[in-house]
Every structure is written in structure tokens, then in C-alpha cells.
Amino acid sequence: MTQSKQQCDTLIRNALILTLNPQQDTYARGAIAIKGNTIVGLGDTDDMERQFDATEIVEADDKIAMPGFINTHNHTPLMIVRGMIEDMNFAPAYTKSLPKVHSLTHDQTLALSRLGALEMLRSGCTTVVDFYRHPQALRDAANTVGLRGVIGGRIHDVDMAELANGSHEHKNSVGESMLKETMDLFDTQDAERDVRIRCDLGPHAADTCSKWLLEEVAKLAETYQGNIHTHLAQSRMEVQHVLTRDGMKPHQLFDEVGLLNPRLISAHCVFLDDNDITEVGRSGMNVAHAPHQNARVGNIAPILKLQKAGANITLCTDTRSADMFEAMRLALVSARILDKGKEPKAPEALRWATTNPAKALGLEGVNGCLQVGDKADL
Q: Amidohydrolase-related domain: from which residue to which, for each copy (predicted)?
């Protein structure tokens, strides 16, 4: 008796499949059956064709099917500064050379974010952790294009326009405004219940947030139990400012207010000494490694040391590029140069762009690898 076939919407067949699942299964001539937005079958093409009838067949000869990349740190609207910051040895937020980035309107942010989201999709990125001003625009752009997004508003209580002139004056009114913008984003998300978009909390950095503001963020983090997304040890100036102001390193300040934990995603993590690395690693924090951004200004994060200490390493593009393949290549070669060895190998760099970010975001079982029951983010 002939067994009846299951119906699916799409069958991708004859691909080289890299699942990156716990068993590291690969299929030289594989197929993926998709129903709705979920993987319902995965295996050799002949087996899948015996099991499934598909509305649409995607021929994938000479192609690789793999998990979509997860970009763990980006400011999508800041693609506007590309080409203008190539020889700048500082993050755009700290300079007065680019005042326009502080005054983008909602509509400008939306347009730039849509363009940036399309650019990320083109390089295989299916999820982005994004934060900047006008977070509603970031959210709407990801929604329109079809990206999975973890979106947050940029929270700080320093006037960023004044920061560019060297002022670190903290103003409660600025912080309260940023917190309200973030809370409005959470309220919108709760009302619309968009399953692809999630909100997080985005304290900009330890030097642009007072201890009071970080404590307020920590209270919200306890309420919402989501991710916290920040810049950490990005510059010597940041580290020195926090040492002078609070008598401790930036990561120690985050620890004191209750934010240094496995839900924290920290971009850069360049200026850390061996003791800092031990403390950061012990927390189980996630590092958003930006090799392209950091190498352009002559720096690189000690990711192998951080990983050995216990930190979860993930990859991001930040503002200078949207190419996750380039991020993997640069992460691999820069780590080898920094540690003067032959590690990491390519499969590890691939995990930094897929399974590790899924762990950081609590998306294991949703994306990060290809397996039955996961979303078809590929």
C-alpha cells in the first residue's frame, strides 16, 4: 500500500545542507520541507520527495542551504555615514564631524532602515539586533522587509550632540525621555503581538549612562526579562571616564547595578585586561564582536580569551558593513593574528554567526540551526 504524502508549501531540493544542529548533520544532496514558516522535514532529497508533496519546488543544485545569520549589533540607519568614517578612529556618536546622525527624523530613519534591512537580507542575515533613535522606525523597517528583529531604543542621559563637543554632563530629563521612548516601543509591541519582532533594552554605554539611569534600566530588565544591548569597553576614553566618575571599570558598573549577566549583549569589548576578561567571562555575558568596525580603527577584541573565560562570542557588522561573510572572515584571521596561532577554524566562525547568537537571544529551538520544528530562517 502506497503511503500518502504530507503536504508542504515549499520543498528546497538538491542543496548541500549545513544544518549546524547539535549533531552537525550535513547532506550532500539534501532537501528541506517548509510549511508556513516552519521546517517540517529535512534529509536526503530522495527521502523528502517520498514524504512530501510541495506547492512550490526550489531547485538548489550547486547551492548551500544553511541557517540564516544573526547580526547581534547594528545601528541600521547609520549606513548613511559609510564612506565618511573610513579614516575616523572613533565611533560616530562621539564625534562632531557628523552632526546629521543625531538629528535624523522618524521618516529618514525608516527609509534608511529599510535600505539597510534589504542589504542585510542580501548577505544572508535573517535576524538583527538593532538599536538607535526612533526605535518604532527600526521596528517597522524590519517588519516591512521580513527580518526577524530584536529592537531597542538608544538609552542615555548625555546629550549626544554635546558629547561630540566633549561634554559628559548627565541630564535626568534626557534619560527620562529615552526611557519613555523605549517604554512606548514595548507598549506598541505588546499591543500588536508581532511574533517576528521583539524588544530589548539599549543602554548606550557606561559612559553615556549615569549609574542612576543604569539602575532604572536594570529595574525594567527584571520586569521584561529580555535582552540588554550595549557598547562595552569600546574606547579608552569610555573606560577612563567611568573609572574617574564611578571608581570602577564599565563592566564592573554593569555588574554592580545587576546588568552583567547572560542576557547582556555587549558590542566591541576591546579594552579589557586579563582580569577584566576573567570577570566578564565568569558572568556568561554575550560579546557582539565587530571585527570590521574595530579593525578599521586599529583595534581588535580578544575573543578567544573571552571565549575561554566563559563569554558567548557572537558576530555583528555594526555600521561599516552589512556583510556577515566578511565579518566571519575578518573574525577568523584577526583572532589568529592576535593569538599568533591557527585557531579559530572556519566552522567556529560560522557558529559565531548562527548558533551562538541564537543562544544569546534565547532563540534556540527557533533559529540558529536547521532542524524540524525550527523556523525556516535560512
A: 64-378
Contact yes or no for 74/26 (Cβ under 8 A)? no
- 33 — phi, psi (to 5°)? -100, 130
pLDDT digit string, tens, across residues 341-357: 889 999 999 999 999 99
pLDDT in tens, 38-70: 999 999 999 999 999 999 999 999 999 999 999
**Would you say domain 6-65 falls under CATH 2.30.40.10?**
yes
Tell me the H-state helices in the chain: 45-51, 106-122, 135-145, 160-163, 172-192, 211-224, 236-246, 250-257, 274-283, 291-296, 303-309, 324-339, 346-352, 355-360
Q: What is the pLDDT of residue 168?
A: 87
Contacts of 299 (CB under 8 A, 6+ apart): 270, 271
Give the start-to-end residue ranges of the domains of the chain. 6-65, 69-344
Instruction: Please list the ranges in the chain whose pLDDT falls under 50.
Output: 1
Beta bridge partners of 145: none
Burial classification of residue 183, based on how many CB atoms lie within 10 Å of its CB (0-12 exposed, 13-18 middle, 19 or more buried): middle
Strands 26-35 and 6-18: antiparallel
Indicate the helix (H) or strand (E) that contains 42: strand 38-44
Q: Quote the CA–CA distance of 75 and 78 in Å, as a whole number.
A: 6
